[in-house]
Amino acid sequence: GQMITRPLGKQDYDHIVQVIDRWWGGPTSALAHPIFFYELGSLARVVEHDGIMVGFLFGFIAPGPPKTGYVHLVGIHPDYRRRGVGKVLYQSFEEEARAAGCRRLKAVANTGNDGSIAFHEATGWTWTIVEDYAGPARPRVVFNKNL
Question: For the whole model, what pTM was predicted?
Answer without folding.
Answer: 0.91
